[in-house]
Amino acid sequence: MSSTIAFRRAALRLEGRPLPLWTCKAKRFISTSGSILHENPLGIPRKPPTPAPGRGSGPAPSIPRMQRGLPQKMPIKGVKHIIAVASGKGGVGKSTTSVNLALAIAGMNKRVGLLDADIFGPSIPRLMNLSGEPELTGTEDRLVPLTNFGVKCMSMGFLVGEEAPVVWRGLMVMKALQQLLHQVEWGDLDLLVIDMPPGTGDTQLTISQQIPLSGVVIVSTPQDIALIDARKGVNMFKKVNVPILGVVQNMSLHVCPNCNHESHIFGDGGAERTAKEMELDFLGDVALHSEICQLSDKGQPVVVSRPDSKHTQYYKAIASKVVAKLWPETKLASA
Ligand SMILES: Nc1ncnc2c1ncn2[C@@H]1O[C@H](COP(=O)(O)OP(=O)(O)O)[C@@H](O)[C@H]1O
Ligand SMILES: [Mg+2]
Ligand SMILES: [Zn+2]
């Protein structure tokens, strides 16, 4: 495909520098060498600079004086709502929730996209059963998302191999994130779901300060060790004035696949209690079930591969609450 070739050629244009190594199929590995890479880590070709207007011509900068120097929020073209799925901890089910939530909302007649903001540990390619390099738009300055199950996806994992580590310092990561935020051709979307990395660091700050988030879904398991970090996540988003849509409790209830015996291996209702204490809405539970894990690993998210299962009901219930919050008017219309 010509645009993919153009994409590679663009990378080759970084003359005299070590090539961005994702052009090398044999040993995909990204390093921080080469200062140009700092400016354009994803190797998206640049447009020729537009000639500067003459002195005094052109409109005055639109940023009010008071706000200069502060990060400006820039909407993502064509996207109505953006939500982030976050938590303090890793391994609590953010990616699994993002994917199944996105699919459940897509099943409600919404155009949905999924952005993997986990640069170091991208999960979306595997979970959505997608691979391959994204093509470039005709204008060659934007990446075209890959689509599966009707959801458009973008991930750092499309640009590097599954086992290749991204060995980047913070600056490169932030620049790559900016490119993933603003140089992807999503087309018209009702909702973009962002699957966040764990923590309350650079990525979380960049995303909450650079794009207008309609809200955040906090995922936590019921153990104290996860809840402590979930609280930190909540407090961070509160500090930067991003609304919290609510809390999802993952893996509280375990249903034995053999005898259907129910137990609370990680404790009972901790995330629900925390939501109450922090005056947040509780969006629902997702039980711990080996089927969710196995199907996720195979790239067959439960919402599409087991549409009639109990698991899908959990995700659909959460999706309905999120949709009611983002589009309160539809709730009124259907009431
Ligand atoms: N409700 C669940 N039942 C069973 N396994 C789950 C459930 N939620 C997540 N998992 C599994 O737990 C692991 C971590 O989930 P993941 O979504 O990658 O977490 P995170 O994105 O927060 O790091 C994955 O193997 C996933 O399949
Ligand atoms: Mg994840
Ligand atoms: Zn059993």
Automatic annotation (TrEMBL):
<dbReference type="GO" id="GO:0005759">
    <property type="term" value="C:mitochondrial matrix"/>
</dbReference>
<protein>
    <recommendedName>
        <fullName>Nucleotide-binding protein-like</fullName>
    </recommendedName>
</protein>
<dbReference type="InterPro" id="IPR027417">
    <property type="entry name" value="P-loop_NTPase"/>
</dbReference>
<keyword id="KW-0004">4Fe-4S</keyword>
<dbReference type="Pfam" id="PF10609">
    <property type="entry name" value="ParA"/>
</dbReference>
<keyword id="KW-0496">Mitochondrion</keyword>
<keyword id="KW-0479">Metal-binding</keyword>
<keyword id="KW-0809">Transit peptide</keyword>
<dbReference type="GO" id="GO:0046872">
    <property type="term" value="F:metal ion binding"/>
</dbReference>
<keyword id="KW-0411">Iron-sulfur</keyword>
<feature type="region of interest" description="Disordered">
    <location>
        <begin position="38"/>
        <end position="69"/>
    </location>
</feature>
<dbReference type="GO" id="GO:0016226">
    <property type="term" value="P:iron-sulfur cluster assembly"/>
</dbReference>
<keyword id="KW-0408">Iron</keyword>
<dbReference type="GO" id="GO:0140663">
    <property type="term" value="F:ATP-dependent FeS chaperone activity"/>
</dbReference>
<dbReference type="GO" id="GO:0051539">
    <property type="term" value="F:4 iron, 4 sulfur cluster binding"/>
</dbReference>
<dbReference type="GO" id="GO:0032981">
    <property type="term" value="P:mitochondrial respiratory chain complex I assembly"/>
</dbReference>
<dbReference type="GO" id="GO:0005524">
    <property type="term" value="F:ATP binding"/>
</dbReference>
<dbReference type="InterPro" id="IPR044304">
    <property type="entry name" value="NUBPL-like"/>
</dbReference>
<dbReference type="InterPro" id="IPR033756">
    <property type="entry name" value="YlxH/NBP35"/>
</dbReference>
<keyword id="KW-0547">Nucleotide-binding</keyword>
<comment type="similarity">
    <text>Belongs to the Mrp/NBP35 ATP-binding proteins family.</text>
</comment>
<keyword id="KW-0067">ATP-binding</keyword>
<dbReference type="InterPro" id="IPR019591">
    <property type="entry name" value="Mrp/NBP35_ATP-bd"/>
</dbReference>
